[in-house]
Design brief:
The structure is a single chain. The protein is mainly α. It is 70% helix and 3% strand. The protein contains 17 helices and four strands. The strands form two sheets. The chain has a two-stranded antiparallel sheet with strand order 1-2. The longest helix is centred in the middle third of the chain and has 28 residues. The chain is globular. The N terminus is likely disordered. Part of the binding-protein-dependent transport system for D-xylose. Probably responsible for the translocation of the substrate across the membrane. This is Xylose transport system permease protein XylH.
């Protein structure tokens, strides 16, 4: 930053001092955190971290701490919990419901809810089964049609909500019943269609790993290399853009530190999974979806419009944002990912059946992003909350299975975790309002 002195020349300004002055000039006054520059190294990070926590900006901190506690408790009760085989199972079963949760993150950012995703996922897997198995259609074409079916259903829900004014809760609840009935009709009297062990569903099966590398162990490490390289390149490109624009940018030391931490995480994950079945293709698909959707939400005008509508509808209208278009598109995205998640779940089970989308599938899909840190009140959250929430849910499920606990206990504990997440979210919002940052 710079200002003009008496001669008209630019004079440098210490932005760290300016930001600190802005914060202390009026006690309790809010300031723009983007004015902070991290010239103090680790001390600057700690200062910024304390400021965010005091202001109620907890982010993913509670769920990360919760996940560590959960893993510690179950490992203490059963030493098999953190073995490669059990961790592989947790990560494999995260993908199906997690993909459904990705679509729900978009809806929750609007401050709305979609109660139809479980039925839509089951219907779309049934559509795939009828087209690919009963009618012999090419598996990839049947997949595309199934995904388009989910997107069309979601857009229909969004149209009733955005154009007619029917509450999203009512529209999607009606959809949950209607699409479940249509799924039963599509599957016919047998109620189930066994899916071929070849092609798409063999690709997504638990015995196939590392994407294009098949069961080769090197595939997992290759994916880790690609992920690390992508992180480094994107960070460097972002830094160059910010420097050219004359705005504060991350120093090289921070970029290298972040890339190093990511490298440790992905290579450790690949190593653990390679001790068992390798990196499942469904997990790779889930990871790619998370990266793409995170980019869409944080780096594109469309993503910023979603946050704007979720934060303040009237302000969004006055800013020229087409609120109905955003709502319809978001529900279409939710339907698309419900369909994709349904196909992955069908691949896990090896069949499209009337049991798809039943039981607690809907509740777990909704609980995951909320537990992961996405606000139920709209306007706040990240796409990675779908992954974090599913890790918590699957960790509890696998841990209690190792301890031979009944499913009733699993439901009660998961419900308690969900309530705790909502309480933390509510307290966080209240703290932000009190500090003038909401």
């Amino acid at each position: 930053m710079s200002t003009q002195d008496d001669t008209g020349k630019a004079a440098p300004v210490n932005t760290t001092k300016a930001a600190a002055t802005a914060e202390t000039a009026v006690p309790g006054a809010a300031f723009d955190p983007r004015l902070l520059i991290r010239e103090e190294g680790l001390k600057g990070y700690l200062t910024e971290f304390k400021r965010k926590v005091k202001g109620g900006e907890l982010g993913s901190l509670p769920v990360v701490i919760g996940l560590i506690v959960i893993w510690g408790i179950f490992q203490g009760e059963n030493s098999s919990f953190l073995t490669a085989g059990n961790l592989s199972s947790i990560l494999y079963y995260v993908a199906g419901t997690g993909l459904i949760s990705v679509g729900l993150v978009f809806v929750l950012l609007l401050g709305e809810i979609d109660l139809s995703v479980a039925s839509v996922s089951g219907l779309c897997s049934a559509v795939f089964g009828v087209l690919a198995v009963n009618h012999g259609m090419n598996a990839w074409l049947a997949t595309i049609l199934a995904l388009l079916t989910g997107a069309a259903i979601g857009a229909l829900h969004g149209w009733f909500f955005a154009k007619i004014g029917v509450p999203a809760f009512v529209v999607t609840l009606a959809g949950n019943l209607a699409w479940n009935g249509l799924m039963i009709k599509v599957l016919g009297q047998s109620g189930s269609i066994n899916l071929s062990a070849k092609g798409l569903f063999s690709f997504l099966g638990i015995g196939n790993s590392a994407f294009f590398m098949g069961a080769d162990i090197a595939g997992g490490y290759l994916l880790a290399v690609l992920a690390t390289a992508a992180m480094l390149i994107s960070s460097l490109l972002e830094r160059r853009r910010r420097v050219q624009a004359g705005v504060p940018a991350r120093p090289f030391s921070e970029i290298l530190l972040r890339t190093g931490l990511l490298a440790v995480a992905v290579f450790l994950t690949a190593w653990v999974l390679n001790q068992s079945t390798g990196v499942p293709n469904s997990l790779v698909l889930f990871g790619v979806v998370l990266i793409v959707c995170d980019f869409v939400l944080r780096r594109t005008p469309f993503g910023r419009k979603i946050f704007a509508v979720g934060g303040n509808i009237e302000a969004s209208r006055r800013a020229g944002i087409s609120v109905p278009a955003i709502r319809i598109s978001v529900f279409a995205i939710s339907g698309f990912f419900a369909a994709l998640g349904g196909l992955v779940l069908a691949a896990e089970q090896g069949a499209a059946s009337t049991s798809a989308g039943s039981g607690n599938a809907l509740m777990l899909a909704i609980a995951a992003p909320v537990i992961g840190g996405t606000s139920l009140f709209g306007g706040r959250g990240r796409i990675w909350s779908a992954l974090l929430g599913m890790l918590v849910i699957e960790s509890i499920t696998m841990g209690l299975n190792l301890l031979n606990m009944q499913s009733s206990v699993q439901f009660m504990i998961t419900g308690g975790v969900l309530l705790a997440a909502v309480v933390i979210d509510s307290v966080s919002r209240r703290t932000q309002k009190a500090s003038g940052r909401a």
